Amino acid sequence: MADIEIEIDGNVVKAKAGEMLIAVTDREGISVPRFCYHKKLSIAANCRMCLVDVEGAPKPQPACSTPINEGMKVHTQNEKAKASQKAVMEFLLINHPLDCPICDQGGECELQDVAMSYGSDVSRFTEGKRIVANSDIGALIHTDMTRCIHCTRCVRFGSEIGGIMEMGGTGRGEDLKIEPFLKEGITSELSGNMIDVCPVGALTSKPFRYELRTWQMHSVANIARHDLVGSNIFTQTYKGKVKRIVARDNDSVNETWISDRDRFSYEGLAHENRLLKPQIKMDGQWKEVEWDKALEFAVRGLVDNALNTGGGNKLGALTSNTATLEEFHLLQKMLREVGSENIDYRLNVKDLDNVINLESTIKLVELEKVDHSLIIGANLRLEQPMINHRLRKAALAGASIDVINAMSFDFNYRTNSENIVSPGQTVAILAEVLKSILERSCAEIPKYLGKVKIGDVAKCIADELLESNNSVIILGEHAINNPQAASIAKLISEIAQQTGSTTLNVSATSNSMAAEMVNFVPGQGGLNANAMLAADLGAYILLDVYPQYDFHNSVQAIKSLDNKNTFVVSMNSFRDKEVARYSDVMLPIASFYETSGSHINIEGVMQSFAAAVSAPSESKSAWKVLKVLADLLELSGFHYANSEQITGEISNQSHKQKIDNKEINITAKRGVSVIWQKSPYAIDVLSRHATALQATKIGQMHNALMNKATAKKEGIKEGGQYLGVPVIITEKVANNCIFVHANQSTGDKS
Amino acid sequence: MISNKAKKQIDTWIQKYPKGRQSSAVMEALKIVQAENENSLSAEAIAEVADYLDMSSIAAAEVATFYENYNHKPVGKHTIRICHNISCMLNGADDLVFYLEKKLGVKTGQVTKNGLLNVKKVECLGACVGAPMFQIGDTYYENLTEKKIDDIVDKLK
Ligand code: SF4
Ligand code: FES
Ligand code: FES
């Protein structure tokens, strides 16, 4: 990349013509102070802190906005540069309170650091300082606007990265204030990044307020497990507690950003609802016991109720999709050792014979380069914030985005077309798209497409797909319980193949990719989750399952687990009254950041992490518990000293490709369909216990939306309830669809 | 609510900019909407303008609060826009502001009881040569003295 040479402080360095000076000094490790410059944001050049002396220029130049040329001679440390830096520093401190000891940013404040190195020792300013009223911008970010130095990083973050300009600078001159509009507050799913970009203590983390100084904490590199990206983070801990989470740079995964869910979910770890002691149920009463007692009790139960009476077939294992790769692996290995194939993690799928089988064939970084995308059944922004962020970059660069959803969502980029159709119609549109594509390439039309009439919408989408060179088709979570889920996935594969598009399957989130990798699904002769619950098994091992949130039909699931003759071993990180109702043993396990393990992201990349803190009280890492259970069951091959040894044993054993040879069925379903989609902050047990997250607008999403016509048909009124969820009538939802944002499976999810 | 008439006016401004750059019309749009609302802009009005131009409300508010020619509080029939920038300040603008406030019995930013007048401090109006000065409607009044102010203001109806 080196194509020119410039001289900085007497040393010759190589650089690319047109680069900004500050990019070069940063790369060379030469420190130039700055506030407004941020490598991922546009250049504002408004703070003037980065002034350096460029030979030949009469005045000092801002390094952040001075492009370099061949032969340029720059001094970052000479008299002139230093004098200007000192002057700017003094100027910036005029209105800044000098009360670092009571400021939450103290110790990690760019202003404090720069003032130390470049400022003067005493303030010459004797006049009054201005004071700016704070705005309450929500549950996540605390504001101290008197400290703001108007660098506009937060403003630029909103308009450039978050995609909605939420902060702005109102007024002028001395009256300039950085604030949101009215009292609207900040609602972005990426808002926490503003805390990271704010160089001073104007925007700080609300849940972390006045907790600790940064130097008191220990930073552990870690991986967030709430979505399919596995954002890189630092968990910052103090005395064995996670106190804060901040972003860790990784350009191929999350760049420098993380979602609010990844940033603030840690709060749940300290929730009083944690399960801390092993317990066994004797004569219907829960009793706290020692680990060895509990495990013994568990093993005896498993043996008596399943292994000895009907062999492995009588035992089933179910998990949530947040388990680590190692946990998935051990549990399936254990079950298969005892001869059971009753293994499943897909608890939220209604019909497990009708599942989505679609490969993801594009890398995260490549997502920014697509020129077209077709999104089906996803509220990408809230469900997979970092994936949406990449796609947004593509959209800003001109990619056209077509959407087929059951409801109109707020995109933070322009869409080419937003087609709002009821879930029953999705398959029909895709069939039309495929036929249109085949017709135009004069390919043979398969029989099942014979009668399909191509509508205008499908024709437009087909056009876009054919015209683009680099298109990605994204299938989201709303499709998992679509009456034609399997056919939708197949049509997408077919369309992708015909048009040379890539596909991205975001229909199962968290660590589902890990479950697939170790084949955590029933094999030959095994029962899937729904079949198990219908089959009266003798015993279950449940790993961090919370029935009301995880099962597609929680009422049914609870009923069948709560059977006198079924022995249930539950391993949970949090207490849950339904779990207590149906379990016979409850084993407390470590939650996020308390155990080592691995996450598999959508690219299939494995990211392993160490435990940042130890599990609280008597709880233990699930992999250790599973290992001991296996030992007690006298199974061989479970001698692990640490989780890395388990990881080393795992190879990709996904059998996904083989199972499927059913015909594509394109009959549209008539009548009303319901989509159940939990609030994005309710998808796993940790987020559900994170108080600040739950207090945000997104956390409060708890409603059933439908249009007037559907409401009338179903006899539902605005302000009424739909299966226990408040109803909102809006024309944003497709006809014949009820879109339920529910934190809880309230009834039969049809 | 932005009236249809105002929308039509705004549309002619939108057309002057390339497609997709409709937000460039924000200054004119705010002006048009302000004229329709007794010469002041409420937060709701700003939000509506932003909506109409498909931009974020805070971005429109940035513009609306930057320029002095937008009002955010009710104003009188006439606004006395008195300059308090350097040249005028050196020539006694502050005293004149004080005089005006006393004379009218209102502070800057308030409207006289009869709804006729309000005083607003503004930045340099480019008439430094006749400092101190103020502007009422489209007319500049320069080389002001207390006496001259009496003559001008007392005639306002
Ligand atoms: S709040 Fe922070 S990030 Fe935003 S402008 Fe002020 S100092 Fe910069
Ligand atoms: S960093 Fe260069 S002007 Fe702010
Ligand atoms: S300073 Fe008052 S008109 Fe210029």
TrEMBL record, chain A:
Its cofactor is [4Fe-4S] cluster; [2Fe-2S] cluster. It catalyses: a quinone + NADH + 5 H(+)(in) = a quinol + NAD(+) + 4 H(+)(out). GO terms for cellular component: membrane. It comes from the Bacteria. Keywords: 2Fe-2S, 4Fe-4S, Iron, Iron-sulfur, Metal-binding, NAD, Quinone, Translocase. Residues 2-80 form the 2Fe-2S ferredoxin-type domain. It is an enzyme of class 7 (translocase). Binds 1 [2Fe-2S] cluster per subunit. GO terms for biological process: ATP synthesis coupled electron transport. Residues 217-273 form the 4Fe-4S Mo/W bis-MGD-type domain. Composed of 13 different subunits. Subunits NuoCD, E, F, and G constitute the peripheral sector of the complex. NDH-1 shuttles electrons from NADH, via FMN and iron-sulfur (Fe-S) centers, to quinones in the respiratory chain. Couples the redox reaction to proton translocation (for every two electrons transferred, four hydrogen ions are translocated across the cytoplasmic membrane), and thus conserves the redox energy in a proton gradient. PANTHER family: NADH-UBIQUINONE OXIDOREDUCTASE 75 KDA SUBUNIT, MITOCHONDRIAL (PTHR43105:SF13), RESPIRATORY NITRATE REDUCTASE (PTHR43105). Belongs to the complex I 75 kDa subunit family. This is NADH-quinone oxidoreductase. It comes from Bathymodiolus azoricus thioautotrophic gill symbiont. The lineage of its organism: Bacteria, Pseudomonadati, Pseudomonadota, Gammaproteobacteria, sulfur-oxidizing symbionts.
UniProtKB/TrEMBL annotation, chain B:
It comes from the Bacteria. GO terms for molecular function: 2 iron, 2 sulfur cluster binding; metal ion binding; NADH dehydrogenase activity. This is NADH-quinone oxidoreductase subunit E. [2Fe-2S] cluster binds at residues 83, 88, 124, 128. InterPro entries: NuoE-like, NuoE_dom, NuoE_N, Thioredoxin-like_sf. It catalyses: a quinone + NADH + 5 H(+)(in) = a quinol + NAD(+) + 4 H(+)(out). Belongs to the complex I 24 kDa subunit family. It comes from Bathymodiolus azoricus thioautotrophic gill symbiont. Binds 1 [2Fe-2S] cluster. Keywords: 2Fe-2S, Iron, Iron-sulfur, Metal-binding. Its cofactor is [2Fe-2S] cluster. Pfam families: 2Fe-2S_thioredx (PF01257).
